[in-house]
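Submission sheet (multi-component)
Chains listed below:
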Amino acid sequence: MVTAILGAVGVALPVINVLRRESGSNMFYAAIALGALAAAISYVVSQVAMGTVAASQVLSGDVVADDLLGAFFAIAMLIVAVFTTVSSFAYMRERRYPAVYYSLILLSAVGMVMVAYANDLVVLFVAWELMSIPTYVLAGFNKRDPSSNEAAIKYFMFGALASALIVYAISLAYGLTGTTDIAGVVAGMAALDASLVPLALLAGALFVAGFGFKMGLVPFHMWLPDAYEGSPPPVTALLAAGTKKAGFAAAVRVVVIGMAALSVDWALALAIIAVMTMTVGNVAAVMQKSLSRMLAYSSIGHAGYILIGLAVAPYSATALPGSLLHVLNHAVMKGVAFVAIVGTVTALATAHIDRLRGLGRRMPITAVGITVSLLALAGVPPLNGFWSKLVLFGAAIDAGAAAPWAPWLAIAGVLNSALSLAYYGWVIRKMYFEDSGGERVREPRAIIAVVAFSVGFMVAFGVYPEPLIQLAQSAAPASLMP
Amino acid sequence: MTNELVDFTLVSVALLCVGIYGLAVKRNALRMLFAVEIVINAANLNLVAFARFVPDSGGQTLALFSIAVAAAEVAVGLALIIVAYRMYRDIDVAKFGTLRG
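Outcome: structure written.
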């Protein structure tokens, strides 16, 4: 249903463009795209609010599962797609080919939503490609700009390798179990002959590598800062906050559940990747001069926090809800941070941290958006980022009873959060306590709308996080809880 | 000649290794694109070979999907490489140096 709306409008936009025989009119196409996204998101939210969605049907055997797990990820991704579209109201003004641009955003959103709901490896793969291919084009959308093109080529090479590895992993899983249905694969893996377990491990490792490229886990993160810095900033919001979360959606359905079925101790391997990911991300972020590059590294760090939940999922009942919660929170926090960068790029033509001096006076609302999202990313108490980190680190400490190494994950996470607060604080100091003497600039209204919504979201669910935690708890698949 | 499953699997693993080697070592954008294609085709070979020996024919379906999707992917990749060539007169990824790292 959701995908039908988005897909139809996404395909219709270029047709409308040809029929109208004119160029320009960014507002017109943006409004159509926004309408489609708003219809989709209100449909999903109303379904969840009415309580008609089944809790979790990971093992149901249907090709597409209509469950809360999918709905949860779909909400997070659609929020990001709305952010991208709204900020493009400001960014795409004066730029060419708006119809194609919004059409690609919608098609990529269809792919992300399908990844969230997919319950069959064939559907998962096709949805993954539907999500990825439009974003390669979007990353290189400023085709006269060498850095946009370079970002797109790097992103494309690693993205194509990632999907190739995923097909290879699917082929191995299919060969070992004789089916592409996730429930069937899990059942087959559980009953696997001992001599074939190494092949199953190879399949699992290839899945982790393939999804890990999109998630930005550490051995596979080389492309990420370049792609995020070079792409048009609204597209970066889509990549950092949207497609990255689709990687986690796929990983929850495939890797975590497969891990439970295969009963081999992968958790330690995932935990080591988690610690490496957050440390590399946060340490490299300290040295960055460009705000978008710094946020790219911090987004690597946050992939590490989310991975904590996936790693300790077999040992603690709150681990997966923690991950889901952080996925939604990170989508909003990182989304608004990059949308604020769209604001500075359109108004001041820079995202360089040194040139953001005095932003608190020049663009007060954008500066508030950046400040609140950075504080939420660091996990400062009255904001939503604090609660998801609390649930995640609490789950890691809980898991210590079954896995003695798990509490170290919590310690690494807390140390990394402290480190991240240092470099976020440096940006905030530049914005408020140093002056550049520039005049106040008019802020684009679209950016103000996104900032207002997400500051409200971050503060509201920071003060009163109960409903979100409840939702995440019912969305997490319960079958692998001990 | 025998057509054992293990023969197909060995060829496919060999292709996977060739593809990953190519992507890691080559710096020519077209060669990197070929390397990715080799990995995808290794997976397709796997799928079709397994579908021959497994009761479920879903593997052949996925192989068809993956061929079609790979074609779309290559179209996008070649478009990006052409744009890069117009700017740099070269398709050596080591020379694309506007972003650090």
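Remark: Chain B has a mean pLDDT of 86.
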